[in-house]
Amino acid sequence: MAACAYPHLSVADPFIAEAKACETVVSFAIDPGFRQIQVEGDSLSIIKKLNSTRIADKSILSPIVKDMVTMKDSFEIINFSYVGRQGNEAAHELTRLAGQSVLPQYWFGTAPTVVEQAVQRDLVP
């Protein structure tokens, strides 16, 4: 397990912020050599774009989507799945932590207590 909180300081659009968060997760997983990752998000439209086989994306997210499609080749298995806001509390805790810092924060094998508690709540059906 690994987690990161990366402040995207100049992103005003929440749609782009969500896409940048996915991009950060994928990029973050490459450096330590993860071969299989599961990326969960609560923006269905972004998850659909990442799972699409369409090459041409003319949305404002096009550069971010293209970057992530390129990074997909770094993994044996990479899955993008949609989870509703209720099942994505851990991500929101990481976002809150990122907002409290101007520097990226990384955790390997563990995460801040509030994030681990959120993960446990996310797992409850």
TrEMBL record:
Xref: Gene3D superfamilies: Ribonuclease H-like superfamily/Ribonuclease H
Pfam short name (any one): RVT_3
Domain annotation RNase H type-1: ranges: 8-96
Superkingdom: Eukaryota
Protein name: RNase H type-1 domain-containing protein
Protein source organism: Hibiscus sabdariffa (roselle)
Lineage: Eukaryota, Viridiplantae, Streptophyta, Embryophyta, Tracheophyta
